[in-house]
Amino acid sequence: MCGIFAVSGTQRNAGERVLEGLKKLEYRGYDSWGIAVRIENNTVNTIKKVGKISTSTEIFPEGTESLGHSRWATHGKVTQENAHPHRSGKVTLVHNGIFENYTDFITPEIQKNLLSETDTEVIALLIDTFLKKGELPEEAVRKSAQKMKGRFAILVMIDDIPGIFAARRGSPLILGRTETETFIASDIPAFLSETRIVNYLDDGEMVYVKGNTLQFSKISTGESLIKRDIEVPWKMEESEKGKFAHFMIKEIFDQKSSIASAINHSDEDIQKAVKILQSTNGSYFLACGTANKVCSAAEYFFANQAGRKINVVPSSEMPNFEKFIHQKTALVAVSQSGETADVLEILERGKAKGARIIAITNVESSSIARIADVHLPLRAGPEKAVASTKAATAQMALLYLLATADAGKITEGRQTLLALAANVNDLLNPRYEEKVQIIAEKIVKAPNLFIIGRNALYPMALESAIKIMEVSYVHAQGFAAGEMKHGPIALIEEGSPCLVLGGDEETLMNAMELKSRGARIIGVSPKRSEIFDEWLKVPEANGIQSIATIIPVQILAYKLAVLKGLDPDMPRNLAKSVTVK
Ligand code: G6P
């Protein structure tokens, strides 16, 4: 949520480089953007714009240092005034997160002089106040960070002081280094074209960067820290669209290989996680959005494979049940980004109570990965489209493997998943995409779409609705197949499109009930049925039909968005990585 990026180096086009880096982080927020460049006389020149940064071809003044921000609005409307960077006195600053106690620092006098409605401007003000009191720049940043409550990552430039200060608590910040320069970003893709050598800034740490010199220290005590260079395995091509029109369809096609990569863990690593599940007295699976629907599918995997009842709660609702977390509780966090605030907060409080934590994330350096006792990376490659696709199926594959390992049947679990991975590889081809396109054309004008499924296909019906709504803005709703007749069937009219996930006898009976009332039935199943008006064939996948079935729906959502002239990668009002509650 909000992308921040800075460069301190030797090349004189720092502004353009920050622009290019921020474009690669745009999935984190795209309401407005802004970039500041340190110019010749050591002052700072700032440009701010409302709208998406991807369309910008702005020219910046020359300078070797620059910082910038792509915003997802939290405090204050989407206006140029509220766009970052914010400035106070000699301080220019960008911020990802929420300064929870910012109002404590606003007197009526200060209020009169504020230029924006943001919490961020108050951070700049705080730092500038410390500078005016004679604090050294690093101390002014440290003392301000110490006063801030909430999660944050900040990048700071101060007039007359070369270099960039960065500090974080909760929100991510990663440094990329070459022999002459340093990049600081909320996420690795921003600088992947420049370097794969990184340093991670941990929670409660700050750094002063000048060219390729870095001074790390603790925010709380000022104690110096030494960091190790790490080479990240990500490849540049993985975070580019390549021949695809959008990241969303590229990432859907990445599922040709990502399902197999997700389960490429040794039996020993999987057993470490299983041991936690087996040595505790109950588990909560914590996730948000699509990842939460994935966990609901896992509820069926664990019940059917291992006879284990797991608790699945959307993380934002978990505070109601936190009283049940104790030393003998397993918390299983499932998150693509590994930064989702609602998940992270429960984990932090759970850890303090002694609960054991298993994390499944796609970002190995993420906060959720780092807090876990056992982390199982998804290895799906960067996912940049806001709508989660390949991460979702990778999560389901890994959770299914865990469930079978829990039942002592990991080898069979692996075989089933690898067979599915091979079938998905065959399924994803241009001809199949065209079939989905034809169906999308037939239903694109419908105001409502209903989706039904039974067993683990029920959470997939819910996930299908999320996918379709979030990218195509068509109202879609998922139901347990047997529940339609308990109310929602009243909405069915002549021609209402209904996606029927699965082809078992009972679901087909429910489909028939809808068809008899005029519904247009689109079946997504391994076998054709005469009830279907349209049919999308999916591979047979015993126990993991959910993984096979969601893929054509992802394509359908994508096609609906494109047919409506929308940008499926950056749907309105959304952001990829939700680091605020
Ligand atoms: C946002 C994204 C969703 C995602 C959810 C959870 O809402 O738009 O696609 O499912 O966050 O994100 P996570 O990174 O924790 O999986």
CATH topology of the largest domain: Rossmann fold
Which strand order does the major sheet show?
Answer: 3-2-4-1-10-9-11-15
Number of strands: 25
Give the % helix: 25-40%
Under CATH at level 1, the class of the largest domain stands as Alpha Beta
Identify the bound ligands: 6-O-phosphono-alpha-D-glucopyranose
* Tally of distinct domains: 2
Low-confidence segments, given as residue ranges, are none
Question: CATH superfamily assignment of the largest domain?
Answer: Glucose-6-phosphate isomerase like protein, domain 1
Proportion of residues in extended strands: 15-25%
Quickly give the CATH architecture of the largest domain.
3-Layer(aba) Sandwich
SSE arrangement:
Elements: E1 3-8, H1 14-23, E2 32-38, E3 44-50, E4 65-71, E5 86-88, E6 91-97, H2 108-113, H3 120-132, H4 137-147, E7 152-158, E8 161-169, E9 174-177, E10 182-185, E11 197-200, E12 205-210, E13 213-218, E14 224-225, E15 230-231, H5 247-253, H6 255-262, H7 267-279, E16 283-287, H8 289-306, E17 311-314, E18 330-335, H9 341-352, E19 356-361, H10 367-371, E20 374-377, H11 390-406, H12 410-427, H13 430-443, E21 448-453, H14 457-472, E22 475-480, E23 497-501, H15 505-515, E24 520-525, E25 534-537, H16 545-563
Parallel strand pairs: 16-17, 16-18, 18-19, 19-20, 21-22, 21-23, 23-24, 24-25
Antiparallel strand pairs: 1-4, 1-10, 2-3, 2-4, 5-6, 6-7, 7-8, 8-12, 9-10, 9-11, 11-15, 12-13, 13-14
6-O-phosphono-alpha-D-glucopyranose binds at residues 288-291, 335-337, 340, 343, 386-388, 574, 576-578.
